[in-house]
């Protein structure tokens, strides 16, 4: 009988020992899961920031109209919904803590390739 090489017998995923074998290196499955979750968390936390920088650098400006204004939360935060049009298609957005009444116009900055990604121009101007 011939002996099998260790690499040939090494499983890719071994449930009983909770190890993941990759090219004869033993990596603990918990480590892999923690790294994946950490990566997803970092991406999720930075996604809006990346969008805001893109809007600040290459967004297009237009006028929108405030459609609703309401107080939310115990600290007096004001949530404002607005709408605007790009190529005769209506898009909506939301901003907080800006002093507008229903029917007021405001400037919106949006992504030319994806107009559903939009922010209030004053928010982008103040923060980015």
Plain-language structure description:
This protein is α+β, with helices and mostly antiparallel strands and 128 residues long. The protein has three helices and eight strands; from the N terminus they run H-E-E-E-H-E-E-E-E-E-H. The model has no long low-confidence stretch (mean pLDDT 86).
Q: How would you sum up this structure in a few lines?
A:
The chain has helices at 6-9, 29-58, 121-127; strands at residues 13-14, 19-22, 25-28, 60-72, 77-86, 89-96, 105-110, 118-120. It has 128 residues and is α+β, with helices and mostly antiparallel strands.
- Regions with little confidence, pLDDT below 50 for 5+ residues: none
Query: What is the CA-based Rg, rounded?
Result: 25 Å
Tertiary shape? elongated
Q: Give a count of the beta strands, DSSP E runs of length 2 or more.
A: 8
Order of helices and strands: HEEEHEEEEEH
Number of helices, where a helix is a run of at least 4 consecutive DSSP H or I residues: 3
Structural class: alpha+beta
Strand content: 35-45%
Average of the residue pLDDT scores:
86
Strand order of the largest sheet: 6-5-4-7-8
Largest sheet: 5 strands, antiparallel
């Amino acid at each position: 009988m011939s002996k099998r090489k260790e690499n040939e017998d090494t499983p890719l995923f071994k449930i009983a020992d909770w190890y993941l074998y990759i090219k004869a290196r033993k990596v603990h499955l918990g480590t892999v899961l923690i790294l994946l979750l950490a990566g997803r968390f970092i991406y999720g936390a930075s996604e809006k920031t990346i969008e805001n920088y893109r809007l600040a650098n290459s967004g297009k400006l237009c006028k929108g109209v405030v459609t609703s204004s309401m107080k939310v939360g115990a600290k007096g935060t004001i949530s404002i919904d607005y709408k605007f049009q790009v190529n005769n298609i209506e898009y909506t957005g939301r901003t907080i803590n800006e002093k507008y009444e229903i029917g007021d116009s405001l400037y919106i900055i949006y992504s030319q390739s994806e107009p559903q990604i939009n922010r209030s121009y004053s928010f982008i101007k103040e923060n980015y």
